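Thread: quick sanity check before group meeting

JM: Hey all, I'm pulling together slides for Thursday and realized we never actually wrote out the predicted structure for the chain we discussed last week. Dropping the sequence here so it's in one place. If anyone has concerns about the input, flag it before I start.
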Amino acid sequence: MRRWLRVTGEVWQAASDRRVEPAPVHHRYPLAEAAAAHVAAASRETFGRVVLEVGQ
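JM (edit): ok, ran it. Output follows.
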């Protein structure tokens, strides 16, 4: 458990220091295409985030 806490702390510190970058957005889907977004994410053929846009 201690190792997990140490590693978690190091990861959060690296993110805070901007030594790691967030995953890029692979594709944006309107909310009406939520099913297609889910299929894309579940297929593991995406690189980065799959984003649902609400109110567009």
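AS: nice. The helical segments are 2-16, 34-43. The mean pLDDT is 87.
JM: adding both to the slides.
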